Amino acid sequence: MPGRERERKLTGRPDQEREPAGKPTGGPVPERKPPHTPTPDRDRGRDRADMSHTDRDATDIRDQDRKPTNTPGQDQHPTNTPHRGPRSASTSTPAGTSTPTPSPDRNLTATPGRDRDPTDAPAPDRNPADPGADGGQRSPAHTRVRRFLRERWRVLVRLGAWSVLEAGQTFVVGYALARALDAGFLAGNARTGLLWLGAAGLAVCAGAYGTGRVYRVVAALVEPARDRLVTAVVARGVREADAGALSGLTQQVEIARDTLAGVVMVTRSFLFTAAGALIGLFSLAPLLLAVVLPPLLAGVALFAATLRPLAHRQEAFLTADEALAEELGALVPALRDVTAAGAEDRVADTVDARTDAELRAARALARWSVARVAALAVGGELPAVLLLVTAPWLLGHGVTPGALLGALAYVTQSLLPALNSLVHGLGTSGARLTVVLRRLTRTPRHREAPIPPSPDARDDARDDARDHERKPARRPHAPPALSLTSVTFSYGPASTPVLNGLDLTLPEGAHLAVVGPSGIGKSTLTGLVAGLLTPQHGTIRVYGRPVPAPRATVLIPQEAYVTTGTLAENLALFRDDPVPEAELLTAADAVGLTPLLETLGGPGAPVAPAELSAGERQLIALTRAYLSPAPLALLDEATCHLDPEAEARAERAFATRPGGTLVVVAHRISSARRAERILVMDGARTACGTHGELLRGSDLYQDLVGGWTARPAPLPG
Ligand SMILES: Nc1ncnc2c1ncn2[C@@H]1O[C@H](COP(=O)(O)OP(=O)(O)OP(=O)(O)O)[C@@H](O)[C@H]1O
């Protein structure tokens, strides 16, 4: 049925509409897209689609027993058959969120609380790293570590023994050097000196052998620890049935193993080296110990004091780093969705926020790293300086030149490198190990730091709030603006129904977008609601009255018709009473007609329909509908010739019309996003929810959002 007749029938003012020369003035009728047969891929996708939550939770729209493959008209146009990417990609949102269950909107549905799957209930939080956690018997981490070490006392003894051999080298080298000088070269006995140097060389060889054995023993300690962690993590992954978490956690286990080995090595090395050096210093001259020990202890204490804050900064940095990586990981496969949703700026803001967060964390970490350098200077380098500064005094108090040289060797060749390894190894690996172990043993999953809303999001929220404020509150006991109950409609007795058992309820003031592939039945739905078509089964009520409900509904079709006459006559076409000019101007301003109105010369200016662009005709038709007394507006691609800004303005005008209810057949993602709820028509799988819910729960909606990116922008007017 031509759009002009639709408008006429709906508003009850057929006689006032005049056409020039008996032909439509709406310009060329846009080409209807040819139907096509669904691709096997698409069908497979539908079969795969897990619509259970939208079917179960978010809809009261039942469009049952459809056989979409049999009806050409229900088929999808090629331009509306976007490539179906991997599910993980299509479910990714710009914000990189997971997939929650769409929640039903009780305002939009008539049969709330449909059977909910009990498995939807969140699983109780369990300790992920403790295989025995199911029983709730979880011992503290330090107890488990002690038990682990007790079970491996033999390994610890071996580790100690080989470490003593390794540390013996430290002791012997310094001591032998001192003796070589004092008893050998300075005493004119080169042979003795060489013998002591030879002893030092042997000690180095023995120490190297000891170091090699130490590595093996450390592996015997670290590998079982890793195995335990792997067992715990796999058990957790199986419990949570989360392969992603599993792979992420096993990766963390590997990090834990490597860092644990590093921590054991550097800590053990420092302890044994320091013991060997201090014993050596004491053996050479107790006075040397008095010079070296205080700064060494001060340096170690300073380093120890930085450990906890460093671990926190390290954790903050890792968290920020992972959040950024996660953001980018979710973003890259979802670029198509981002573009489709027009969310480029918002996503850029989010990534900026994550990058800034990482930068701040890195700076904080760097600041604390300076303290580590200070600890190294005090504990490792200051003793050497003190030895040199106090050398005359030491030599005057019985310290021999050989002992002084040996002390310098202890400090520069043993203590400083060992402390250096400790500070850098423990400062980095230790902090990292703390973080990883904490996550593995306590936190189920890394949680992202909240990101402040982007300026765009704030703007949207402000717009929404403003719209909400401008919209009168819904009357509590008012009948629904629209209710469809088990509506079935087909164009012929033998044809497959376009709608089959559809239920839908909209409260007064609601804003619903209808989306779906070409030919799925969106215009048919608006035609039924407008009373242009009559369902074979079911009932349709508009504000409690059975359809057709004259003067309750206004349908604005894609083809806008403008009559000859003045602009004011065009705009007042659906009104019985004379429309005051002020009201007319207000409506024009709300819908976005004012510039055209001024160009034409005001409300009294004559209109030449053929000279108007398609977009200008749509603006006139929209303003006419806005001024009509009908509270339920049906926009069936009525803004397709407007640019996105003009479309947004017109839709907002209808959405905030006092007492008005809006149903929009959306042809742009921006249009769908403005609606409170979106009805996705997909044959048997009709679903209803918010944009976010449907992105997560409706494969077809994901496809449509993707397809919108490929759709060329509408031609200007
Ligand atoms: N007058 C008619 N007679 C027979 N079949 C029709 C008629 N009008 C529409 N159909 C068929 O009904 C089905 C639904 O059409 P409808 O126009 O409602 O779909 P649509 O979702 O609005 O499509 P589009 O997005 O392309 O406008 C299609 O298969 C179409 O071919």
Automatic annotation (TrEMBL):
| Basic and acidic residues bias spans | 1-21, 30-68, 456-470
Q: Where is the composition biased (Polar residues)?
A: 69-82
Cellular component per GO? plasma membrane
Q: Is Membrane there in the keyword field?
A: yes
Q: Would the keyword Mitochondrion turn up in this protein's UniProt record?
A: no
ABC transmembrane type-1 domain residues: 161-417
Q: Which PROSITE patterns match?
A: ABC_TM1F, ABC_TRANSPORTER_2
What InterPro entries does the entry give? Answer: AAA+_ATPase, ABC1_TM_dom, ABC1_TM_sf, ABC_transporter-like_ATP-bd, P-loop_NTPase, Type_1_exporter
**What topology does it adopt in the membrane?**
Multi-pass membrane protein
Q: Where is this region: Disordered?
A: 1-143, 444-482
Question: What are the alphabetically sorted keywords of the record?
Answer: ATP-binding, Membrane, Nucleotide-binding, Transmembrane, Transmembrane helix
The GO molecular function terms of this record are: ABC-type transporter activity; ATP binding; ATP hydrolysis activity; ATPase-coupled lipid transmembrane transporter activity
Q: Where in the cell is it found?
A: Cell membrane
Domain ABC transporter, first and last residues per copy: 482-708
| Regions that span the bilayer | 155-178, 190-209, 260-281, 287-307, 373-395
Residue ranges with Low complexity bias: 87-100, 120-132
SMART domains registered for this protein in UniProt: AAA (SM00382)
Q: What is this protein called?
A: ABC transporter ATP-binding protein
Native source species: Streptomyces filipinensis
